[in-house]
Amino acid sequence: MTKEAPGTAPDWSQRPQTADAWVRRAHEVAALLAEDAVERDRAGQTPYEEVQLLKDAGLVTLLAPAEYGGGGQDWTTAYRVIRAVAAGDGSIGQLIGYHYLWAWAARLVATPEQIEAVERQAAQENWFFGGAVNPRDDDLVIREEDGELVFTGKKTFSTGGKVSNVTVLEGILEGTDDHVFAIVPTDQDGITFPGDWDNLGQRLTESGSALIEGVRVPWAAAAGYTETADGGHEFVPRIYNTLNVPLIQLVFTNFYLGIAEGALTRAAAYTVAHTRAWPYAADRKDRGVDEFYVQEAYGDLRSKLWAAEALAERAAAQIEAINAHADSVTPEERGEAAVVIAAAKQTAIDAGLEIGTRIFEVTGARASANAVGLDLYWRNIRTHSLHDPVAHKRAEVGRYALTGELPAPTWYT
């Protein structure tokens, strides 16, 4: 895959200095990805080059502290970057979004010493994070052996797989209900990826199963665990720990919005260049773009997408308010953010699926050709939006609207 013609490569030698400049960098990446997104989707090859593109652009260390060599940006910028990248390629938008969540995982659950060590090394070595974390799979078991933790089992779904430098593992400590997270090198004999991701959309996300066989982790690397006076180990939760789900749900929201933006932009370009007016209309036009129904449809879809983006921005603002005092966040603040994120997610899904379908009505029969590839956008949103039932998100918002009930933290809320 060749991303750039000679002489046209962007100058990425300098790190962006502002949030807006980081988003512009993401749009440059998206433009390169969009050039052959359909062909790469059809080929379904492991996206090593695409992830390298993210690294070359500096996007991988966006959230890492500046003192360690990272971008030092906030989640609002990260969400906008996800949206921009996903407009060029939805799969790669998902990959960078999940990467940001797993790169942030240490801040959610780790000790201060662990956070510093992970973020410093991740920034300096330009780590790309994957995750084998699927709470509905309980067959990744951890046993203690010779003072170490040994992870063994399977995760039906993971993300990042072969393209990651490190993988976030999650399992249950044998004989307990305790979940343990640890960051481990991906390239080791104990981790294999069967390559069984063969789904309708999001084909380049390396989201298939992960086999974990005897991966050893020292207790010191168990996120958030500290040694007790009697030589045991204890995890002390806090409310901020539970923000991992709202954060990732808003990641979903933003790459759905990016995919929808890509669909609308590409469809509009096709309509301008190729869609013909209907010659048998009562009010015959010379060009497809002059057809009333075409203008009305694009106006409707663009308005819905702008509205969904505005709700996503509101949700991001609530995340920033929480991050400003992460150690003293209240259950109420966490719950209210989760409700708005639930609303943003369902709105993004609705807008994205409608855009992915209706663009065919305003591009014409020839646009259904496989070579055009307009099916890519609907397939991508349809596939990932099944991650957890959107009906439950609607109900969460409904309960809040009716009684003020806030969603209790779970693995999906």
Automatic annotation (TrEMBL):
Residues 31-117 form the Acyl-CoA dehydrogenase/oxidase N-terminal domain. Residues 251-387 form the Acyl-CoA dehydrogenase C-terminal domain. SUPFAM superfamilies: Acyl-CoA dehydrogenase C-terminal domain-like (SSF47203), Acyl-CoA dehydrogenase NM domain-like (SSF56645). Keywords: Flavoprotein, Oxidoreductase. One of its GO terms (molecular function) is 3-methylbutanoyl-CoA dehydrogenase activity. One of its GO terms (biological process) is L-leucine catabolic process. Transmembrane segments: none annotated. InterPro entries: Acyl-CoA_DH_C, Acyl-CoA_Oxase/DH_mid-dom_sf, AcylCo_DH-like_C, AcylCoA_DH/ox_N, AcylCoA_DH/ox_N_sf, AcylCoA_DH/oxidase_NM_dom_sf. This is Acyl-CoA dehydrogenase family protein.
